[in-house]
TrEMBL record:
One Pfam family of this chain: Pkinase
Chief subcellular location: cytoplasm
Domain Protein kinase span(s) in chain numbering: 1-296
Alphabetized InterPro entries for the sequence: IKK, Kinase-like_dom_sf, Prot_kinase_dom, TBK1_ULD
ATP-binding listed as a keyword: yes
Protein name in UniProt: Serine/threonine-protein kinase TBK1
One GO cellular component term: cytoplasm
Keywords (A to Z) from UniProt: ATP-binding, Cytoplasm, Kinase, Nucleotide-binding, Serine/threonine-protein kinase, Transferase
UniProt-annotated location(s): Cytoplasm
Keyword Calcium among record annotations: no
PANTHER family: FI05319P, IKB KINASE
Amino acid sequence: MPCSNSIKRPINVFRGMHKVTGEAVAVKVFKNGVVPARELEVIQKTNHVNIVKLLAHEVDESSPYNLQKVIIMELCDGGSLLKILEHPKNAFGLEEDEFLTVVRDITLGMKYLRENGIIHRDLKPGNIMRYIADDRSSIYKITDFGAARELKDEEEYTSIYGTHEYVDPDVYEQALFANTAMPKKKFTPSTDLWSIGATLYHVATGVLPFRPVDGGRNNPKVMHLMTTQKESGVISAYQIEGKNGPVIFEKHLPKNCLLSPDLKKLICPLLAGLMEVDPKKKLSYESFFLNVDEILNRTQVNIFNINKSQLLRLFINPNETKTFEDLKGVVQSHTLIYPENQILFFKDTTLDGILGNGTLDVCTKLPKTAKTNPVILCDRANTEVYWKSDDALFKKQLFPNMVTLANDAKIAAHNCKVAYLIKRQIEDACQKVNLIYTSVQTINHVVMTQLTSASKENNLIRKVVQSINNQFEMMEGFNQICNVFAKLVPGDLESSSSIHESVKKLEGIYSSEHNDFQKLSEMLLQLKPSIDSLLGSRVQNKFLMNSWEAFTTRVKGLEEFARFGKIADTLVYNIGQAYREINVYLTSLSRRSGASQSGDKFLHLIERNKMAQEMDKLEKHHVFCSDNFSALNSVFSEWYKLAIAAYVQPEILTKDLLSLQERMFESENFLNAAVRNFKSQLEKVSESLASVPVVVVGSSIQNSQCHKDEESTRVRVARLQELARVQKEVQTNFKINKELCNQLHGLLIGSCSGKSS
């Protein structure tokens, strides 16, 4: 910052090598030969994965600057975050996963510094380095502690350090607008919070948060107005129509930002709190750390909304989303699809089949999703599929006939940004094509599984019904036997009346339960034709997949769509090469003159023409891709109507089978009660049977009360012999009935298990 107290440290950073291990290191050289004592003191006290590590400090005796002092630090091969953001592909900010990595690492690094009473005072993308780990993942590290100092929360400082675009407004005002007559302002460690907010905004969007015409350094008054006069909640501002033009304030991240809508909603309040002018409303360090933890600890769920061909990423709060119904409520808030109409698939099954409706702490049980492997969402009430092509937020610029090196470089930079934007749109569309093909496979598999399961369920229920039928046949047999028994019991027998009463009750139990069973059988008979028909057309004839294969003969195949992305890669690479060459020639021409300059101008024109030609190709390719994507979407829309119908039909059957299953359980309970009652009555009959004297064939029967003739005696003997046979049959049927009861219970348990699986 250009003021009397600004830090001026002529330094250079070189790539070096460890003298013993040969490990690559960064060597920070101070040309005046003096290492700032405070910087060395501060960095020696740090030891954290998100702080660039000090390895050594020594004197370079071979230096032409006379015993030059150097600091040796760990090397971050990924370069500075600023260099990363300056690459055209990051013109609209980092991709979401990388952005979250930056947020995590900066927060952890700053949390460590605060815990150790250190303020940085010059946090910005240029002072954040990317270290590439062995697994190629990124680790971002805070560096350059030349302005840092130890300062506790309650302490203050007055010296001015920082960088215009990222510094706290109070520090900025003191540096640029204060005069000697004004007392010096005192600042607290919270000044780093504004710098964090400005840095994160830059990382999220690819641009600075506050942008006067010609930049803050050339237009400091407007810069000061933007940062001090903004309302609470404002996170950015830009100026239009010249240096004295109006200022537009924004409370939201720009549309072209690469973050998902759900993450934007979480990040905007965080940025607003960090870049708050009112001290009472500004986030504290503790609140900042807690807010970031809350965002990073949310459960991320990737969802492909088929009806809108839209890939969503939801950041779900596990403390507020406990059940599957809660999850459906969250989905509704983002898609406007009512929970009862949501069909959620994951891989080869339904999400509710994985989680279950009664699941608690659903976020801990959700399967891991990704952009390439999301939850697939369908709206059962909507069979339309929409494919909305991405809006062209930026257009390419044409090179003017007159060659102006600086202007050409600006146009080349703009076109390179547009090229990466088009490439990203083509890649996103190709990814959606893959998800459409995945959705076809998934829906087909689930429908076939449902129908196959329904068929198995139906067969199992038929066995259960057959078992129940056997039970009733047994009861009917008991009735017939007992009626025969009752007729054989002599009327003058003491227990005759109780036997007749028990037999009558048996017949009543059988009649009342048999009517309900008949209705159950009728329900089963009604379902069978529907199940058999669907099983034949949908499963055995592979209706859905055959339909898809027929539809897709009219459009490009999956392999051809994959080629679209590769062609875009090649064209954008060529455009990037031309952009780099134009910048090389710009630097070269500024240093040369005469004939050599003329040759470079010729080469510059060639690169200009090359970029223009490749941009034309890319635009035409983009239109070609969009037309093919739309054609595929139309085909998929036709197939999707068939798919939803195919899914809903077995779903209805499944509900009917479930209802039938519930009726079976009710029938089993009633049947068990009836059988127990039946058995009780039979036991009474059996006891009566036991009281009848056993008959031995060939013996004579003496009756003390009356004397009958020989024929009457033979009839009596025959009846008693028949009673003995009936007694034996009743005991045998009791055993068979017990086996039937066990079989029925086992089938019902099997039916229940098959349904739950």
